[in-house]
Amino acid sequence: MEGAVSAFLRSIVIFFVLLLFTKILGKREISQLSFIDFVSAITMGDIAANLSYNLEGEMGKGFSSLMVWVFLPFLLSYMALHFKWVRRFLNGNPVVVIRQGKVMEDNLRKVRYSIDDLMQQLRQRNVFHVADVEFAVLEASGQLTVLKKADLEQPTRRDLSVPAELRNEPHVVIEDGHINHEALTKANLDPGWLLAELERKGFLLSNVFLGQVDSQGNLYVDLYDDNLPVPASTHRQATLALLKQAQASLEMFAIQSEKLASKGQYERLAKDLGQVVRGVEPFLRGGGGG
């Protein structure tokens, strides 16, 4: 009984001591804690808990350890306020991860961010299209700050009394130069359509870092090389891409059709269209003729 009372009284004392130390260190949200603050808080809690229930431990030694973990973070915080190099050493620098709608892949690698991490952070800020972002900066605290493009700001549809249209979730259909077949299926699209769209835009799949399809079926592409110019798509190239896209759609209809008659008809149409594509491809790709 005497031990329980002693532990009770020690816990009360340590609680108010921790409360005092917290006031000294200042107020911060959990998301704003630096690595040093986080480690210090865990260590202080462990020392305080040990002092509360370990009746054999000396209070003096425990408070000495606690004072060290209070004084050093306080000293570093004070130095960070007055010296920029200390602040940079402790917290790091903000990193630009999107600039003018282009993903900065090298900067993502530096901060060990994947495409999934970036898209999750954007969605948490009600941004679902990378193309809508003017700048996105990963702050030293780990939070992502997003600035949308100017033409996407006010006025809103409500301001203009324009009825809002129902929009579906956009899908990331290309990641690191590879097709995301699961996302394509969710978007009700097929690889043939995607490859045709890339050819129409003049891109190679291996050069694409990120490909995203919106609810209207528009394909946004971000390349590995942000300085690589976007090739102009000619009318002949666009026509060839549309023909290949139609052929791929017919082949997909044939696969999905449950009726043998319909399946055979789609297969014949796809085969005939394929012969047409092979016949006109040299003309459309080479740009010959009038």
CA radius of gyration is 30 Å
- What would the principal axes of the Cα set say about the shape? elongated
- Write down the CATH class of the largest domain: Alpha Beta
Total count of helical runs of at least 4 residues? 10
Low-confidence stretches: none
In total, the number of domains comes to 3
Number of strands: 8
Question: Roughly what is the average pLDDT, rounded to an integer?
Answer: 78
Strand content: 5-15%
Topology as a string of helices (H) and strands (E): HHHHEEHHEEEEHHEEHH
Main pleated sheet: 4 strands, antiparallel
Q: Helicity range of the residues?
A: 40-55%
CATH architecture call of the largest domain: 2-Layer Sandwich
Measured distance between first and last alpha carbons: 102 Å
Give the spatial strand order of the biggest sheet: 2-1-3-4
Q: What would CATH call the homologous superfamily of the largest domain?
A: bsu07140 like domains
Textual characterization of the structure:
- This protein is α+β, with helices and mostly antiparallel strands and 290 residues long.
- The chain has three domains: 2-90; 95-152, 2-Layer Sandwich (CRO Repressor), CATH 3.30.240; 171-286, bsu07140 like domains (CRO Repressor), CATH 3.30.240.
- The chain is built from ten helices and eight strands.
- A four-stranded antiparallel β-sheet has the order 2-1-3-4. The protein has a four-stranded antiparallel β-sheet with strand order 6-5-7-8.
- Helix 8 runs antiparallel to helix 9 (235-256) and helix 9 (235-256) packs antiparallel against helix 10 (260-286).
- The protein is elongated, with a radius of gyration of 30 Å.
- The termini are far apart.
- The model has no long low-confidence stretch (mean pLDDT 78).
- Pfam families: DUF1657, DUF421, YetF_N.
- This is DUF421 domain-containing protein.
- It is a multi-pass membrane protein.
